[in-house]
Amino acid sequence: MKTIGVLTSGGDAPGMNAAIRAVVRTGCESGMRVMGIRRGFKGLIAGDMYEMNLRSVSDIIHRGGTMLYSARCQEFNTEEGVDKAVEVCREVGLDGMVVIGGDGSFRGAADLSKKGIPCVGIPGTIDNDISSCDYTIGYDTAMNTIMDMVDRIRDTTESHHRCSVVEVMGRNSGYLALNAGLAIGATCILVPEIKLDIEHYVIERMRRTQKTGKEHFIIIVAEGVEGIGNVDAFASYIEKCTGVESRATILGHVQRGGSPSVRDRVLASEMGNRAVHILINGIGNRIVVSQNDKISDLDIHEALRMKKSIDLDLYRIANEISI
Ligand code: ATP
Question: What is the mean pLDDT of residues 229-235?
Answer without folding.
Answer: 95
